[in-house]
Structures are given as C-alpha cells and as structure tokens.
Amino acid sequence: MKPLPRTENALLVRTNFASDEAWMALRGTIEEPTPREGVRAYVDFLSDPQYDGAGSDALVKLSPGDSTFFLVADDATFAEEERPVLVVNLFSDPSLDDDPYFANRGDSFRAVATVLWSVENNLSLGNMGFEEFVAALDAGGVFRGFPET
C-alpha cells in the first residue's frame, strides 16, 4: 500500500468497499452542517480499493508524520446504523509515554457520524485533546456527543 496523502483537512480512509451507497450516505452525514450550530466536519475522503480491509495499525504506519489523527470507515462503521467512525490518534510525545491520561500513537475510539464534526473541529484546532473524547465515551466505547448543559 502506498502512504496516506497529506491533506488540508482531516483524512477519512475507506477500508470497506461492500456498498458504494452506504459510503455516499456516510459522506453526506459527515458533510451535513449541524442544525443548531451550523458547523460541520472538515474532512477529505479517501476511497481507494488498495486500502480495502486495511487495519488501523497498518494505516498508522502509512500516515504522514505531521498528522495528529485520521479517521477510518471500516467494517464496524458500516455494520451499525449510526455509522461509528474510527478515530485514530497519531500524536506522540515520548515524554508522556508513562502518563495514563495521555493517548499514545495508534490509540483509537469510535464516534458516530452525526457528531464527528465535534471530534474533527476540536482535534484539528487543538481545542481539546484525544483523551477528553475518550473520557466521554459511552458504555459501549462510542462517542455520541457531550451532554448538554
């Protein structure tokens, strides 16, 4: 497999090619601005069959060195109605390797497509860290948004 490209926005890699219709629906959900806030995820989509079935570990090794995270639409994404996309951490700081709060390179969580804007916006801008999303996962290990206050 060739290296993942550098992109202007967060990269979402498609690794399941079972349904083009499901892929297009996922893209539509991710690109749709939120009704209340009017914000959306800024994502560059990569749909290349050479990545069919690729796991996150392989994709981490293929990622550009200056990226801090990427997204994966894999088998598990398309198996669930809410389309939980895999969010993979690429940021690494060796001085924090022993810190249990700090996420390591390759760590991941899932976020449903309708709230991916929150993950992408906050991680891309550095407003929040990977660990803050991990702390907000539901009992099934999926990020579905922060509770409204």
| Biggest pleated sheet | 6 strands, mixed
CA radius of gyration = 15 Å
Low-confidence stretches: none
What general outline do the C-alpha atoms trace?
A: globular
The arrangement of helices and strands along the chain is EHEHEHEEHHE
Strand order of the largest sheet: 2-1-3-4-5-6
Task: Work out the helicity level.
Answer: 25-40%
Report the portion of residues in β strands. Answer: 15-25%
Number of helices: 5
How much is the average pLDDT?
92
Given the helix and strand composition, which structural class is it?
alpha/beta
In angstroms, what separates the terminal alpha carbons?
45 Å
What is the tally of beta strands? Answer: 6
Description:
The protein is an alpha/beta fold and 149 residues long. It has five helices and six strands, in the order E-H-E-H-E-H-E-E-H-H-E. It has helices at 20-31, 56-62, 75-79, 116-125, 130-134; strands at residues 10-14, 43-46, 69-73, 84-89, 108-112, 142-143. A six-stranded mixed β-sheet has the order 2-1-3-4-5-6. Helix 1 links the parallel strand 1 (10-14) and strand 2 (43-46). The longest helix is centred in the first third of the chain and has 12 residues, at 20-31. The mean pLDDT is 92.
